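Exercise 7. Predict the structure of Ca3427-like PBP 2 domain-containing protein from Coccidioides immitis H538.4.
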Amino acid sequence: MITSLRQNEIYIGIALTEGWVAGLVGKEQVEKGPDADGGYKVVGQWVETPLRWAIVTGRQRANIDSVDDLKGGKVGVSRLGSGSHIMSFVLAKQQNWPIPAPLTPVILGPFGSLRDGVTGKGPNESDAEHPTADFFMWEQFTTKPYFDATPATPSPPLKKIGEIFTPWPSWHIAASSSKFPNPENDPRLTQLMEALDQGIAAFEADTAHVVALLGTGELGCTYSKEDATEWLKDVRFVKGGTKGIRRDIIENVVDILKNADVVPNEIGNDEAVRRVAGILREQ
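Solution. The predicted structure, encoded as tokens:
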């Protein structure tokens, strides 16, 4: 999505907070200089709640039954600087594991490749003899069909050994800096934020309808009624309008990204906020 914004293939995106921040204050971008255009700015907040990540390994991994068994292990990540990578440092911090290298990241790619990485079952493999990672983390309800035993799937490929939440609101809104060079005063963004606010109000006014839609595929997923209801318990949309990002959120994300060696340690909070925020909101 970052690439699409930078190439003006899209002008607005809603994505994980840590991804937006990493793209603007990560080492690759910082090396371009203090005034280099990152291609986008964060202009709004979508939810107030964190994202719930499942911590999973292969079902046949008899030596891994709890989070304690993961210390010093290999964590599968989609790419360096991704949410799946960054959350490994959040996990290490929560567990009081030594920083900076409590876990070894193994770059595996998208969700399917991450599953294969912990089970050892690639396209040409039939057993679990060659797993390349000990565990990975992914959004709870996307992952659940692969670890939750049901009559139809009594032995799913994964087992869940824990869960973890992002220590910040999980979704923010970014806008192309070439399309919206002055986001604070752009009437198009103001109109968009007002429409999003109205959409949130409509969503919250009829959650029963939302639960039904989540099971049809119309909203991009096919949750069971049970999962959709549970998901709604985890989600609270932003109050007081979607416009802007809070300074403390940027600072919190940057702190973790420095531990992950994604952001240079010399980047101060003021510079990070300047690089990331297109519109700041009140604390």
